[in-house]
Automatic annotation (TrEMBL):
Residues 20-50 form the Zn(2)-C6 fungal-type domain. One of its GO terms (cellular component) is nucleus. Pfam families: Fungal_trans_2 (PF11951), Zn_clus (PF00172). InterPro entries: Fun_TF, Zn2-C6_fun-type_DNA-bd_sf, Zn2Cys6_DnaBD. This is Zn(2)-C6 fungal-type domain-containing protein. It comes from the Eukaryota. Residues 92-142 are annotated as: Disordered. It comes from Ophiocordyceps australis. CDD domains: GAL4 (cd00067). PANTHER family: PRO1A C6 ZINK-FINGER PROTEIN, TRANSCRIPTIONAL ACTIVATOR PROTEIN UGA3.
Amino acid sequence: MAMAPAWSLVPSGKPRSSGGCWTCRLRRKKCAENRPECDTCRALEITCFFQDDKPEWMDGGRKQRQMVEAIKAQVKRQASQRRDRRYLDMMKAGDDESSPNKTLSASSPADGQTDGQTDAQTSWGGQLPIRPLQNEPQRDPDYSSNPHLAIIYFDFVFSYLFPFYQPPALAGGRGWMLEVLQSNRPLFHSAISLATSFVAMLRGITLEGKPSQGDYCFFRMMRKLDAQLELGLTELQKEVRSLNAVGSLFDRTKGLAVMQSVIQMLLFEVAMSDKDNWRMHLDAAIALFVQIVPHPPQWSDMLVDMHDHEWPPPQSPIRFYAATLLYVDVLSSVTFAQAPRLQRYLHHVIPKDPCHNPALELDFTGPVLLDDYFGLDNWILHTLADLTALDVWKRSQKHHGTLDAPELQSRAKPLASAIKARLAQVEQHKMQPLLLRDPIEVGQVVRPETRIQCQMLWLLALLAHLSVIVSPWPADKSDIDIDWCLDRAAHIFPLLPSQPSGAMQLRALAWPLCVCACLSPPHARDTYRTLMLQLGPLTTFGIMKEVNDIIQKVWSLDEPCDISKCLNLLGHAVLLV
């Protein structure tokens, strides 16, 4: 959860002693000068070099620069671990209050249950019995100290993360998000942190980059980054304690607020590509969601109960975060090669083929349409979950030595046929419009042809993924022609950067981009190299950097590699959302 303190080498104006440890001298920080380990280094949990003789790496040249980078990396790593410990301790403390006989399991989704029917039993250690606290004062985030960053998050960062989410004015627009920022302190602080990092990217400065003298004011702002993260975690801790107060009742409103904060932290981790810290947030969000909606059929009833004839509609937050969580759950299941833990909710929350057209009416109690949020229709996410189920079955059969190649191909064939039929339907522009047309279209509206291209890229990536699942047995070319899929994708991807908000749309297509690029033959790889170069500094921010790293790693290995393996090649599980 931590951010690299890139400003650690910038003078802070504090006096420094020539008798301090070599670590503090290198970092140009004031040293406490106590031995054998100074308090400054001990607080950061980094190596304290306090020998009398000048280290050989203090040469004013290459070795010293290398040590600077090594210590910066250690500061970042230790800060991240401290926050992770606090987060886990916070969750365990809440769990102990509510379930004394249960203990926290730190197992990851890949190591834990994969049933999907026991999704309430996550690594939080079980469900959270909750009752609302009475007479709790309402507190608003301190906008006065961060007005510019709050607006940057709302106007730019949120649009960058969700370029397809453009609800029309008649549906209330994105006003509900502003209300959430005003009322949810943990979410506000993590949003400010993400906005700060986003500004760094826009200025062409990464957290590992070298500070320049002209960026003194900027680094003053960056120094607030860790403080914002700490504030967010502290506020979340308060909310979790409130949820885990003694009692057996559940306050759905409070639960939703905490789930929003946890998902926001998950998005922060993914956006900053902070390895796989997002996994603990996903566990927590799932645990909360199954308490907010204990039984999938209750989803529609809950939306109806929330209806109060007010505008904007009060269902917007739960619909948005439910869509995000289900989307993340399915994509993470590909990374872990396990069944989605919330799979039994898919049919009720995001039905595979919605029977109504939302362009005809504003129905905030109806099905959630993923095209409104992520640029892919519900059918695609359901099919991706089906492909994951096939992959899980194949791995289980292979593990037990009972895998039958004809049976695998028999199971894959109807999936391939369905995807190809859907692709033909999309190409003929026969898809129903999934967004209500806004009579007042403001800003960068995604073109209809762009939406068609995005749908096609997802479907082509699904076909390529299915082909790899069937391998090493070559699939019938009439059913799955991976070369045809990859050629089509390589033709469509270069069309996006030249379109309005094309770079943001490519980020939303990170998963199909990674799949198609990793599987592309050598003669087609220049297409993806050029595509990544066109993104410029965006390749240094969040998941696009990880996409690029994965692609380069797969190409360098030049060996058969399934998609799950690709998404774990960097030494940690990657979530491309």
